[in-house]
Amino acid sequence: MLRRHRKARPVACGKIADPSHHTGASILPCVKNSTSRSLLRQLPVPASVQVAGGSSYRKARRLHAFRVGLRRTVKDTIFMSLGVASAAFGLEAFLLPNAFIDGGATGIALLFATLSPLPFPLLLLVVNAPFMYLAYRTLGREFALKTTAAIGGLALVTASVHFPVVTHDKLLVAAFGGFFLGAGIGLSVRGGSVIDGTEVLALSVSRRLGITMGDVIMLINIGIFAVAAWLLSVETALYAMITYLAASKTVDFVVEGIEEYTGITIITPHYEEVRAMISNVMGRGLTVYSGKRGFSKNGHSFDTEIIYCVITRLEISKLLTEMEKIDPNAFVVMSSVKDTRGGMIKKRPLKH
Predict the structure, then answer these.
(1) Domains plus CATH for the chain?
(2) Beta-carbon contacts of residue 5 (< 8 Å; ≥ 6 apart)
């Protein structure tokens, strides 16, 4: 006698676990029915999983922030230490033994050191003390502490370490004394501080009176040089100007670096060819904006693409040559860029 067999029921690919025991892994990945999949997606993720994930993310963010802060602190400390050493060498080996002065708060301290028996390190601290307090009031506690550490370090080094005198030639003293002093100021600025408080005063005055910092610093230095010409000699004041010029140019060089970047804006109907040229031939990144090409006499405007890229000054000639090949009538605007962060300009080598 034949037995009747039941029809086999389809077996599910898996078993839906209790949501309360869900571990965050996907449930039933082999379910092929779209309705079933949508229902599975609606299963709630337990709060414990969400809290655990959020906690891990916050810990990772805190760890990253700590590493960034530590890296910045180490970098700033190195820059400040090098700046103090360079400035101390310029003062001890060139300016102080030859009774030379400079601009700014350091120049005021040098002037008083020449006219009085008080030691230069003490005068440096006394002259900069009001500026350190002003830095705390205007620029914040962190900057004021760094500036105090830099100025205090410079005073300590000049008091305890005595470098040998390099030369007594006045022109060499003015040039190289200003160079090493300017390098020290620039390195300190790179480290987030200053070793000359007149810049803090210039910033505060410019905010109150609406004039530029450069004008304030120039007026302060004119006063210092005039007093030096009156109390010392005109020759000393003239050499002080040379020292100040050498120092200021060195500061610009150290702060801004040897690389000079140029921002290029290009408007041309052949923007696709220009885009390909900048990417493939120049090896640089670029940004494409959508804009309008002005208005014609009949009042109509025309849509166009605007290309912007940043290159080094050494690449300008090559870019203009390639642009001449593509569109001699392209509208090209060049502007100075002090520095860049990220992107392709510092990560890819120059292509020639």
Answers:
(1) 67-256 (no CATH), 261-337 (3.30.70.120)
(2) none
Is residue 268 within 8 Å of 274, Cβ to Cβ? yes
Helix (H) or strand (E) run with residue 309 in it: strand 301-312
Task: List, for residues 246-305, the tens digit of each pLDDT value.
Answer: 998 898 888 877 667 889 999 988 889 999 999 898 888 888 988 877 766 666 677 888
| Residue 3, both tokens | 């037995």
Q: pLDDT by residue (tens digit) across 89-103?
A: 999 999 999 988 888
Q: Is 13 helix (H, G, I), strand (E, B) or coil?
A: coil
Instruction: Report the C-alpha gap between 253 and 249 in whole angstroms.
Output: 6
| pTM, 2 dp | 0.68
* Spatial CA neighbour of 148 closest among 105, 189, 102, 197: 197
Name the phi and psi angles at 265, rounded to 5.
-110, 125
- The sheet carrying 331-337 orders its strands as 287-295, 301-312, 261-267, 331-337
Tokens of 118: 């008080």
Average pLDDT over residues 120-125: 93
Any idea which of 163-167, 282-286, 339-343 has the lowest mean pLDDT?
339-343
The number of C-alpha atoms within 13 Å of 1 and in the hemisphere containing its C-beta is 1
